Amino acid sequence: MLETAQWLVDVRRPSVDDGTLDARGTHPQRWTMAMAWLKAKAVLADPRTQPGEILLAADTVCTVDNVVLGQPRNRDDARRMLCAMRGRVHDVWTGMCILPVEGKRCLGAAVAYVHVGDLGDAELEEYLDTDQWRGKAGGYNLSDRIDAGWPVHCDGEPEAVMGLSMHLLEQLLQEAEA
Hints:
Layout: H1 28-44, E1 54-64, E2 67-69, H2 75-85, E3 88-100, E4 106-116, H3 121-130, H4 142-147, E5 152-155, H5 158-161, H6 166-177
Antiparallel strand pairs: 1-2, 1-3, 3-4, 4-5
């Protein structure tokens, strides 16, 4: 999304494995912002990080019945998550952190609401066979599932569901420059 918006991007993977952490009742807004901050802080410690750079980190989770769903651990976990979303609306939270190497950290979060319609068992199992659920909050990528014809639609910013709210990014950059 950043490259499409003509941003020069250098992707660095943080040493934070958020899949091993447990939200344990933390509000998803706070959880995603905390994860984004931890990821940005980890990249800040990377020796390749140079003065003048602006670090951007993000984290996305889905919530169903106030339970935070991150990335599925395995196929059964992905099935459990996706079945919990069928026939209803779930929240998708994306927390973001802007961390100028020489400046103040700025945090924020965006929420969108995704409705998954009547997704049949056979269609679900076929999807699970592809392993496309790996590394995805809630076990799916919104644009991929829309393109695949799933009965899914988003109320809110689709980019936030896909892991990066461009609207929130603009706000955080303005805050960082202030």
